[in-house]
Amino acid sequence: MKRELAYGAQSLRSRATVKLAAWSVPEILPTAIYGVAVAKATDSFLAGQVWQGIGWLGGLIAAAGLGAVGARQVYGRLGDLVEPVRDDLVRRVVGGALRSGDESAVARLNRQVEIVRDTFAGLVMVIRSFGVTLFGVLAGLLSLAPLVAAFVVPPFLLGFALSLAVLGMAADRVRASLQADEELAASAGMVFGGVRDLTATGAEEYAERLVGEPIEAHASAERALAKVGALRTLCFAVGGWLPLLILLAAGPWLIGRGVSTGTLLGGLTYVLIGLQPALGTVMGALGDSGLRFVITLGRILDVTQQTEPERPLDTAHGHRVETRGLTFAYGPKAEPVLDHLDLSIPEGDHLAVVGPSGIGKSTLAALICGMLTPTSGQLSLGGVAPTELSTAALAETRVLIPQEAYVFSGTVLENLIYLLPDATTTEVSAAIEAIGAGALITRIGGLEATVKPADLSAGERQLLALVRAYLSPAPLVVLDEATCFLDAEAERQAEEAFAHRGGTLIVIAHRITSALRARRILVLDGTQATLGTHPTLLKTSPLYQDLHGNWTPTPPAPTAAHPQPPAGTPPTAPPADHTPPAPTATEDTSTASRHHLAAGG
Amino acid sequence: MTTFGEVAKRGRGWLPLIGLNALIGSAVTLALPTVLGRSVDSIVAGSDYSRWLIIAATLIGLGIVASIIDAFAGAACVAETTAWLRHRLVRQVVHGGPEGARGFETGDLVTRVSANANDAAQAGPAAVTALAAIAPPVGSLVLLALIDVWLAAAFFGGVVLVMLVLLAFAKRTADISLAYQETQGQIASRLAESLTGIRTIAAAGTTAREERRILGLLPELHKHGVVTWRILARSGAQAAVVGPLVLVAVLAVGGVQLVAGKITAGELFAASQYAVLGAGLGTLTGVIGEIARAKAGVQRAAEVLAIDAVPHGSMALPAGAGQLTFDHVTVVADGNVLLDDVSLDLPGGLTVAVVGPSGAGKSVLAAVAARLRDPSTGHVSLDGVPLQAVSRHALRRAVGCAFERPQLVGRTIGEAIAPEAVSPVRTLAAARATHAHDFVSRLPDGYLTSLRRAPMSGGERQRLGLARAWPAHRLLVLDDATSSLDTATERQIGRTLTEDRHHRTRLIVTHRPATAARADLVVWLDRGQVQAVAPHADLWHNTSYREVFG
C-alpha cells in the first residue's frame, strides 16, 4: 500500500500538478460565492430591491466564468499528468514481460494499465474538487453565518469518516476480482491460441469450462463488491443528508437567533450543491477507484520490479568453455538434470551434444550461454562465469539459437541484421549464401519485404534465424536444435556453414547426422556424460551405439530391413533407470522393452 | 450481428429494478426541492413546520433506500452480463474452429474477452439510467412551469444548451475510444510476438531493442489519450458555464416574481434547485460516456460473435476399418488453389505417408482429412460417411490429429493430454505409447505439473501432442508431428505407429524417407495435385520422387 501511494505521490511531482492546482484556485470562488449570492439575492428580493438582487446574481455569473476558464485548463493539465503515468506503466509492463517471459503481461497491458490510468485520473480530479468544494463551502458558510457552519460541518465529517472505514472491507474483494481477471486472460490466451488443437481433440466444451471458471469467479467477486457498494451508499446518507435534516430541524431556532431566511436558504444551497456532490464523488472514488488503483498498481509493480542479477564483468578472455563438477537441477526437490559434469571446449572446437530429448542438452546450452546459473560446480566462458558477464559482452562472445526461431514483424533485413545492426550488404549476402536462404528470401519478396511471422513455416523461420546468427559478431555459436525443422540437406548446409565460419561451434544435435559432422561428441545419458569421437564412442558408449544404430539415412526398402536394438540395451535409455527411487520410470522401461519384444516376434 | 440492444436486453432480470430505483431516485430528486422550499416557508411562517419536516425526512429516506438498491443492482447486473457475454465470446471462438479464428490475433481476442466485454456489459444499466437521468431535467421543467411559467421559459433555454453539449461529447468520445483501444491492441500484439521469441531475445541481450520496437506505438497511444482529455476539458468548461447560467436566469426571473409577490421565498429556493437539476451535467455526462464505451465494446464483441460455428451432422460412423475417401476435393483460399481436385481411396487400417515439397498442400490435405477445414468443393468420407454428416462427438472420437507445433491447452500436463480424462489409465497408456511418459515422470509433480510452469522443448511438446491424439479409434492424422523428436524417440514412435495394435488408419505427413518407407502407401503431392499413390519402394526409382526428400 505504501509503495503504491508513494508511486502515486511520485507521479504528482511534476509541473503538471502545480499547474493543475493553480488552475483549481479560480474554481473555489464560484463555489464559495454560490450560497452567499443566493442568500443575498433572496434577502434583496424579499426587501423589494430587484436590481440589487440581480447584481448579486451577476456576480455569480462572473465567478462561474472564471471557474470555467479554470476547469478547462484543469482537464487539459490532467492529461499532461496522467498520460505520462500510463506511458511509464506500459514501459514497465513491456520491460518486465521481456525480462521474465511472463505471458500474462499481455492482459496486464490491456486491462490493468488502463485501470490505473482511469483510477489515477479519477482520484486526482475527485480529491482536487473535494478540496475546492471544502475550501469554498467553508469560506462561504463562515462569511454567511458561522452558526450554520457548526450544524453542517460535523455530521458531514462523520459521514466521511464512516466511509473511510468501509474501504477496508472492500480491499479483499477487489483483489479477488483482479485475480480472477488475470486468470481469465491467461486461460483465454491459452484457449484462443489453441483453437485448432481443441477442434482436433473435440475438447470445445472443456475449453469453454477452462475459461468459464475464471469468468464465473470474476462475476462472483464483482457481486460481492456490489454489496460493499451498497454499504458505502449508506455512509453517504450520513454525510450527505444528515446535515440537511439537522439544518431544517434547527431552522426555527436559527431564525429565532436572527438568521435571515436568505441565509438559511444559502446554508441549504451549500449542502445540496456543494457538500453532497463532493462527498458522493470522493467516497465513490476512494472506495472504488482508490482501491482499484492501489491493488492494480501493486500487481503491476510486483511483476515489473525485478532486480536483474548483477552482471559486473565487461569482457571475456576468448571463448573457451570449462566446466568442473557442473550440476544443475530445476528445483530443490527435482532430480538434477546435469550431475558433476567436467567438460572443456577449446576455441575452434566443433562439438555435438547428443542424447535422448529431455536429457539436459538444452540446459547445458543455456548454462554455457549464461542464461541459467549452475546449482553447484564451476563453469567458465572465456575464463569468467558467463552469468557474471554483461549482456552486451555475452552477445559479443556467444550466440544461442534456440529451436523456436524468433522472427518478428518487420522487413527481412531487419530480422537478419538483428544481432549486427551495422552489417554491410556484402556481409548479409554472404551469410544468406552460406546458409542457403536465398530462395526463401526471394520468395518472401527480397530483403526489404515485410515478414509476417505467422505466414512462415517453422523451418523457414529457422532459416532466417540461422542467417541472423551467422551474421552475429560472436565467435562461439550454440545451435540448440536450431535446425530441427529443416530437411537433412538444409541442416547439413547450415551446420557446415557454421563450421567454416571460424570460432567454436556447439551443436545440440537433433539428428545423429550432426554428430558425424562434429570433431568431438558429448553423449549425455541422464547422470552420465561421455566425451569422444565417433569411432571411440561406437566402442565405448552403448547409448551412442544405440542412437547411431537406430539411425538409417535413406532406407532403401520398407519395414523389414530395420536393425534390432542391441540386446540388453534399453532402447532410449531413459535417464531414470540410473536413479534408484523411481519405480514408475523403471516400470516404463520394462514396458518399452516389451514393445520391442513384441515387435521382434 | 450482436447489437447494443441485444446486450442491453440481457440484463432483463435486473433492468426493471435498476430502472424502478432510478425512477424513484429521480422522483425524490424532483420532489425534494418543493418539499424543502415548503419546509423553509413553514419555518419562516412558524406554522405546520413539523409536518413538512417529516415529509422531507421520509422522502430522503426513500431516496437513500433506492440508491442503496441501485448501487447493488447496477454492479450485479454488469457482472452477470459480462459473464454471459464472455461465455458467448469464448464459445463462439472455440466452436468456430481454426478457420473461424484465423482473422484474429490471440492477444486481440483476449482483449475483447477481458476488457471490451466488460465495457459492453454496461449497455443495459447505462441505457436505463440514461432514461431515468433524463427525468429530472424534464420533470424540473414541468414543476417550474407549475410554480411560474416564466421560470420554465428561463430554464428551457438552459436545458437546450446542455443537450447540445452532451450530444457533441458522445459522438467524439466513441471515435476516440476506438482509436485508443486499437492502438492498445497493437501494442499487445507486438508484445505477444516478442514473447514467442523470448529465449532468442534474452540470449541476444536485445531486450532493450525489443522494448523500443513495442513501445514505438506508445507516442501514438499517448496522443489518442491526450485528445480524450482535451475533449473532456472542453465539455468540462462548457458545463461549468452552462450550469450557473441556467440557475442565474431562473433566480433573476424568480426574484422579479418574488418582488411582485407571485411566489414565496421557499418557491424561489425550489426553483433554484430545479434549475440546478436541469443543468446538472454530472450524472448524465458519465452515463453518456459509458454508453459510448459500451457501444465500442459491443462492436468489438460483435465482430467475434459473427464467427460462424462449424456445422456438424448428426450421424454416427458405421462399423468399418477406417477407409478414407477423398472425392474430387478442391481447397481454394484467397484465390490460391491449395488442393486441386484430389481423389483418393485409402483402405482402412493402413499407414499412409503424405510427402511432397514445401507448399505442396500436405498440411491442407491433413487438415481436410481431420475436418479442421472443409473442402471448397468435393468431400471427404470416413467409412463411406461424409465427414460433414458425422456428429462432432463421433468424429472426434474416431479421428485424432497431431501437429508439428501443438498448442497445449489445460491446467496440468495430464489435462493437456486428456482434457476430460475419466480415469488416469488412458492418459497413462497414451503417454507411454508416445514416449511422453519418459519426461513427464521426471517433472516435479508428474502429470499434475502445471502446464504454464513446465518448460518444454519442441520435442516434448510434440510427444504430448501425440499422446493427446492417441486415443482416436479409427483415424490418426499426424501433420509432421514427430519432426522435433530426436532420432531415437522418433524411431520408437514410428515403430509403435507402424505396428499399431489398434489397426487404425494412419495418415502421416512427413519429410523423412524412413517414415515413408515404413508406410504401406505413399501419397505424393505436388502443387496441390496427387502425383502418385504407391508404396515407397515402387516410387523410389523415380528421380523426382527422390528429390522430394532432398
Walk me through the structure.
The complex is a heterodimer of chains A (601) and B (550). Chain A is an alpha/beta fold and 601 residues long. Chain A has helices spanning 2-12, 15-46, 50-100, 105-144, 146-193, 195-201, 204-249, 251-256, 261-304, 361-368, 391-397, 412-416, 425-435, 438-444, 458-471, 488-499, 513-517, 534-540, 542-549, 583-600; strands spanning 321-328, 338-345, 350-354, 376-381, 398-401, 410-411, 450-451, 476-480, 504-508, 520-525, 528-532. In chain A, the strands form 3 sheets. Chain A has a 6-stranded mixed β-sheet with strand order 5-8-9-3-10-11, with helices on both faces. A 3-stranded antiparallel β-sheet of chain A has the order 2-1-4, with helices on one face. The longest helix of chain A is centred in the first third of the chain and has 51 residues, at 50-100. Chain A is elongated, with a radius of gyration of 36 Å. The model of chain A is unreliable at 551-601 (pLDDT under 50). Chain B has 550 residues and is α/β, with parallel strands linked by helices. Chain B folds into 2 domains: 4-305, ABC transporter transmembrane region fold (Up-down Bundle), CATH 1.20.1560; 324-548, P-loop containing nucleotide triphosphate hydrolases (Rossmann fold), CATH 3.40.50. Chain B has 22 helices and 10 strands. In chain B, the strands form 2 sheets. In chain B, strands 6-7-8-3-9-10 form a 6-stranded mixed β-sheet. A 4-stranded antiparallel β-sheet of chain B has the order 2-1-4-5, covered by helices on one side.
